[in-house]
Amino acid sequence: MISDFLYITMYKLLKYRVKLVRSNIELAFPELSPSKRLIIESDFYRHFCDIMLESMKASSMSKKQFAKRYKVINDDLVLNLLKKEKGVVLLMAHYSNFEWTMSLGNYITSNKLVGIYTPLTNKYFERFYSKIRQKHKGYLLSRYKAQDFIKSEHEKGNVNVYGFNSDQSPRPTEKTYWTNYLNVNVPFFTGGERIAKKYNYPVVFASAKRIKRGYYSFEIFPVIKENSNPYNITDQFIEFVQNKIKESPSEYLWTHNRFKYKDLYDKFNSGN
Fold first, then answer.
1. pLDDT at 271
2. What is the DSSP code (8-state) at residue 95?
3. What is the spatial distance between Cα 130 and Cα 152, in angstroms, rounded to a whole number?
4. Could you tell me where the DSSP H helices lie in the chain?
């Protein structure tokens, strides 16, 4: 298969980000032996190559094909929340086949599915992936424009689903929230939580899961409950993601430099 050839090229020949991937897995799973971590590493690259090709395949897939290959579980949970005339915040991570998430727009037909994302610096790939991601009735919104857009939509009374991939790393400032994630103290995005609390939107979590090559389930999990912790939603989301990663470590996006700011923890938390 093409994916197998791509695996050999990316992993064995080009060694694409192998040092970073190996370091990330070692930080996340220090209790595992080097041999077991190498198994995760190898399995990850096979998964990563599958996802790359499946992302491109999405441009030619029909709604019927998506329904067969990407089984959505509990979409009625979101639909019922939307009936209450409130927007919904959907939090997820770069785990399993997250690229096909925008096909959720095929199910949320009477409302807008808005995916908040960080635009790619490469203009060609930005246009390419934006076109693919928006094919199935999803709408992409740069995170740099999100606050103004959501404020405007809320004031107009438009009821949308706002999807946040919230597991990646923000550039830390004095106001950044830091917490332990995969055994490392790192900064965390809290935009989804802030939007939900500002507009009183309910929050759900979601995650894909590989069934077999080219086939996934995408499950939406019930609304989480509030408590007095100012970052309670983010903390529960982090626990949710870590549990998913432990279930199938190779399905996480280890090529992302998630721990790049770990050495700045003491600088930003010296007064805590």
1. 62
2. B
3. 23
4. 2-7, 18-28, 34-57, 63-69, 75-82, 123-133, 146-156, 191-199, 232-247, 265-269
Do strands 112-117 and 138-142 pair parallel, antiparallel, or not at all (unpaired)?
parallel
The mean pLDDT of 35-41, rounded to a whole number, is: 98
Cα distance between residue 16 and residue 187, in whole Å: 25
Does this model's pTM top 0.70? My answer is yes
> What CA–CA distance (Å, rounded) separates 252 from 148?
31
CB atoms within 10 A of CB 133: 22
Work out the number of other CB atoms within 10 angstroms of the CB of residue 155: 8
CA distance 231 to 239: 12
User: Of 242, 120, 241, 249, nearest to 192 (Cα)?
Assistant: 241
Q: Are strands 70-73 and 215-221 parallel, antiparallel or unpaired?
A: parallel
- Tokens 């995916």 sit on residue: 115
Specify whether the CB–CB gap between 59 and 135 falls below 8 A. yes
Q: What is the pLDDT of residues 109-139, one digit of tens each?
A: 778 899 999 888 888 878 877 887 877 778 8
The C-alpha atoms of residue 248 and residue 27 are separated, in whole angstroms, by 16
Joined together, the tokens standing for residue 218 give: 């995408």
Looking at residue 229, its pLDDT comes to: 85
C-alpha 197/C-alpha 230 separation (Å) is 10
